[in-house]
Amino acid sequence: MPSWLYVESRLPVTASARPPILMVHGACNGPWVWQAWQEALVGRSWRCYAPALRGHRGGPLADLSTTGMSDYLEDVVALARYLAEPTVVMGWSMGGLLAFMFAALAGPRCRGVIALGPSTTAETQEPATPEALAEIPDTFGPDYYGIRDDLALTMRTFPELTEEESRKVVALFGQESGLARRDRKAGVSIPREKVQSPLLVVAGERDRQFPLPVCQQVADYYRGTLLEVPEASHLGLVMSARLVGQAAERLDAWLRRHVLGERE
User: DSSP class of residue 221?
Assistant: First the structure.
């Protein structure tokens, strides 16, 4: 493992020949958001590796005001090189867009893409105006997304989360790069033909940040499959162990069919 890269990994008890799953977190958070998914997938014989992007809790130190999406992509690529085998990339929110970026770069070395409530590509969004881009601060915290240091408010906003899950959100969400957000809002171009891997877009029924119609548009444009998670908000797609547990069986079935080539 690169000495400068922090990775939270979970491996099956029995050695597995299945391709590893590289899990990319979203804005203002870190690899800890993948705990529920790692527990669900490692029990189904998948190896899971979640890096901390630079400037985030546990990750390499970085000036977030000068850190862009291409810098985050370097961290993802560094872990993929260390794994030294074709990998499935799984990203949530900002990490979902990084998953598309990685797939476009890795070509056949990307065995599959799983994007949970992904930030949209230039091809699937309207670009922000120069005025809107100028309003994005150089760095910002979770309150930018309506997540505040208030447990009761967090539990009301995300009712699918348990009290323990909500406490984790309040305690662990941190700062984010405004430059990376401007990159996303201006539009990161990933032409359809650049994503050759099987693609699954996971949408939350109650996701207001990237609602179901937006996720459906992304899945349609990249010729992928859509999986809807009932009750899930944007945050619930990763932080609700209950909902992750319910979705994991369907996601595992998709992996076995489209990545491993197993028949139902």
Answer: H
Please, are residues 195 and 103 in contact by the beta-carbon 8 Å criterion?
yes
Lookup: tokens for 111: 């065995």
Residue labelled with tokens 């915290």: 141
Report the distance separating Cα 126 and Cα 195, nearest Å.
20
The Cα–Cα gap between 74 and 53 comes to 9
pLDDT (tens digit, 9 = 90+) per residue, 54-102? 999 888 899 999 999 999 999 999 999 999 999 999 999 999 999 999 9
Distance CA 190, CA 53 (A): 21
Is residue 16 scored above 90 in pLDDT? Answer: no
Give the C-alpha separation, 240 to 37, whole Å. Answer: 9
DSSP string covering 224-251:
-EEEEETT--TTHHHH-HHHHHHHHHHH
Instruction: Provide the 3-class DSSP secondary structure of residue 116.
Output: strand
Q: Which of helix, strand or coil describes residue 105?
A: helix
* Structural domains in the chain plus CATH codes: 19-258 (3.40.50.1820)
